[in-house]
Amino acid sequence: MSSTAPAAAHDAAARPRPRRLTELLLLLLALGIGVGANILVDPEQLDKDASHIVMSGSVLGLGALLVHVVLWARARYADPYLLPLAVALNGLGLAMIHRIDLSTGQTAANTQVVWTGVAMAVCCVVLWLLKDHRRLRNVTYIMLLLSAVLLVLPMVPGLGVEINGARLWISVAGRTFQPGEIAKITLAVFFAGYLSTNRDLILLAGRKIGPVRLPRFRDVAPMLAAWAIAIGVLVLQKDMGTAIMFFGLFLAMIYLATGRLGWIVLGVVLMLVGGFAASRFFTHVSLRLDAWLDAFNPEVYNRSPGGSAQIVQGLFGLASGGLFGQGLGQGRPDLVSYSNSDMIITAFGEELGLIGLGAILIMFLLFATRGLRAALGTRDAFGKLLAAGLSALMVLQLFIVIGGVTRLLPLTGLTTPFMSAGGSSLLSNWIIVAILLAISHSARRPVVTGPASDEDLATIEARRRARAEQRTQGSDAADREPATEPTRSAALSSSAAAPHHAGDSFDAPDTGSATEAMSRISDRSDGPAAGERAASRDTDDAAAAATTGGDAARGGTRAASSGGPEQKNEPAQGEAEQEGGTP
Amino acid sequence: MSELTVTLLRFGFLALLWIFIAAVVVSQARDLTVSGRARSASRERTRAAVAADEPERRRPAPTPQPRQAAPTTGGARHRPQQLVVLEGPLAGSSYQLSAAPVMLGRSTEATVPLEDDYASGRHARLFPQGSRWFLEDLGSTNGTFVEGQKLSRAAAVEPGVRFRVGRTVMELRQ
Questions:
Q1: What ipTM was assigned to the predicted interfaces of this complex?
Q2: What domain range includes position A432?
Q3: A328: which chain B residues are within 8 Å (Cβ-Cβ)?
Q4: pLDDT surpassing 50 at residue B115
Q5: pLDDT at A39 exceeding the cut of 70
Q6: Is residue A32 domain-shared with residue A55, that is, in the same domain?
Q7: Residues of chain A numbered 66-85 and touching chain B (CB < 8 Å)
Q8: Are residues A263 and A287 in the same domain?
Q9: Are the CB atoms for B160 and B173 separated by under 8 Å?
Q10: Does the reported pTM lie above 0.80?
């Protein structure tokens, strides 16, 4: 093969590659950022007491490596950028929390390191169990129930704890946890599952009033129920930030599913009306609005509950950071209250400057674009909605936090994903990473995308012969190949590369085809066009099975089983129904 | 630590952040096209040249023509070009086939409108794939028959093989 460079280049371009090595290299860079930042916040610690630096570095490194290894084993074609980006952001967050601990004498960094380890382990578990993200679709309504339970949990007497006027936490064994953070994932899964099933009903059924077609109430009722639970509970818990985030998630997902801009307009109007009403009825909301609009008024600044001191100090921090920042460990981010959670962005702005903060924002942007890339690439509506919804969720959360600390929006307490101190936020964001990785694996994994040609059939036949020969030699080495090898699908793929790598996948088995066949079956339900294609594919699979003959255990027969039942009784049918009747 | 080292480290760290971003952006540049569709066009162009160099290695299969990316255009040269009506109301007429799928039926929107009372409005569909045409019944009342066998799924139709839609019998010719 090496004799023709152009052919080899084609091969490389057309065939999806796992790209796990790219990921490993980027991971090393990301770890360098995390550990480097942790050292730079106080270089003298390295000589005196390096235990924290060593511990946080090794937890971050081992955790990242563990996820990486799990990806090798379970999701080889997953996106190679999500993990390094998450690790870099998490490492930066650890360093900044550690840096603020040094000035304030807290021990938040140690807790955060523990949570990082836990979150990464959970990410691995989710990746391991969630081989196919479509399984989540089966639990759509369980997710709705789970979201409701999680959101109500903090209001259970004895379990819920009220911190800073918001009742968002539960206390288990002395540790506090924010169940709402997990609820954002379960709600996203519910919205994706519900909308992917009922999208057409919402779009097409219902009365038409003027140019607008209103969906029938019963088609949107579960969505509205989910929305009402989320918003209602959060308003009761006095957490406006999370309420806005959930409302935004609802809007984003319904827009993604229907493509109607009207929903967004309606939603924004509703949000403004709701905000106005809330500012009238809830004192804490009106205080927030005051602190936003009139932040530099000394009276507002000095007010004891709901003063603007936090916002203004954050702005001063950003200002003193300037373009290049004060340098890690050189600023005074500790002057801002909650500088390691809600206000961590201003701490970064102060110490890394506009250039550093810009880099952090771009990392988030890249993370979200990789999520959207997975959504574009995956073939099922549920996966598309889920990946895009989770990416939208992250962008929305960042927008609310950063808008809040820069006085673009009223400040509402939300965590910065991956960075803020807080275990539940970290945990939920790493679960999001796991789900996005699983979806991106199914998006990039090579599958049959078009009908097979004569050439493919010939390839299958040739491989069957090769296998038969191998078997007569008493060697069944092929059986021991890894189960994820997607060779058959590569050979069957309609992309132009099929002919050339057919050659090198000759002796490999096609144990991976079972999942691909499954995905093709589900493709068929996606639309009439896909249905037609699938039908024609079945024909070829049937032909493949015919040529493969009795080679039942492996090969083309495996694919034929996807079109199995119909195909089996075809001859009988053909004889029974000889002639059609009169019209 | 000297002032200089501190300053260097400070700017070095900012540089590291942007190097990381640059690494991500540069290495992902290649897969920013959705499903590689943009690439396949250029691949198509170069394939002819490559195929000329190495015909036997690139074609392990006995089929003579190279495989194309778009299934509707594959092997067009060897695909039957003509649809001939042998029996039925339109007997004797023939249709030129291009690369586009053809709908057979009584409806006026059908590509080949059959004036056949025994055919359904949208009766069957012929579509090209590789070097062959496939016939698929579209849920017609009376069914579509190839060589006397009722179609239950799409099937390849070779030139010279007779198939029946309603009372119209047709075949493909080279």
A1: 0.73
A2: 17-444
A3: 10, 13
A4: yes
A5: yes
A6: yes
A7: 80-81, 84-85
A8: yes
A9: yes
A10: no
